[in-house]
Amino acid sequence: MTSIVREQLTVLVTGAAGYVGSITSEQLLANGFEVIAIDNFQTGHRAAVLPDVVLVEGDFGSRELLERVFRAHKVDVVLHFAAETTIETSMADPGPYFQNNLVRGISLLDAMLKHGCRSLVFSSTAALFGEPVRTPIDEDHPAQPINPYGQSKLMFEQVLDWYHRCYDLRFTALRYFNAAGASQLLGEDHRPESHLLPLLCDAALGRRDSVKIFGRDYATPDGTCLRDYIHVLDLADAHILALRHLDVHPNGKFNLGAGRAVSNLELLRTVEQVSGATIEFEFGPRRAGDPAVLVASPRRAVERLGWSPRHSALDTIVESALHWRGRHSDGYGSGSGSVVERAGAE
After folding, report:
1. Is 149 a catalytic residue?
2. Most exposed residue of 98, 138, 232, 275, measured as fewest CB within 10 angstroms of its CB?
3. CATH fold of 10-330+337-342, please?
4. For the chain, what are the domain ranges?
């Protein structure tokens, strides 16, 4: 039986100026939720925060800031996106990944419990599985991370298990595979950009001379990595379904992907086909911490949450990304958001 949740819930979103956090916030607003956002703009963009969002600028792990937010707002549920996320960087400097993804996350949980909020949807990752022993990867697949990023996310999921058992925390962990694409208003803009699809889009739009593809000797059909691309709007839908089902699945874990393997070269050819451009590229060495294959089995999310990756056909993902980047030559540039509160304000 589906849990019924009133639409006027107040949702606290950490990392709400980032890629997935901003688009999920957009969809929360469209579904009638009130959104309180926390972001320190280390990697997020003010212009990605819509005017109807109440934005608190600061660190989501700050006990002082969290105390002020929870005192000022009756928060019903937290959507936790804020994290360090770059696999390659985590291999060289793991400290910030454990500090931000684990230690500050525990500060958030403790603040929630102190103020009577026991509902969380967590932005997790397929990187916690490591090199797959079977594909597609379901939720029962062994979790054996091969990089500190994936390890930090797995450790936080383990903390959530104990907080559920000991403190009655209700949570859902959503393991993303490769988030991609854009909404009509919001898109992907990392500084520096390391994700393949936006780099390919920029090359197709004439903003880059070439693109580097890392690794050509994997045990895959064309020698390049295989990934499972999921449209960011489908991820946003999954978050809304997850918060609506927290009563039914109070310690749920779900893999979110389209269930389709796409090689780096196939993605490049699809961008060429959709854009009509020819993309110059070169091969580089493998990146440390990159598994050869990451492909999801989304069956559990489909069956238990009623979720469907409706937007995740590869050409649809590419078209939306090209459209957004075509209209935003400088990404979010230096646009300003709607800061209503600031850390340290009375």
Report:
1. yes
2. 138
3. Rossmann fold (3.40.50)
4. 10-330+337-342
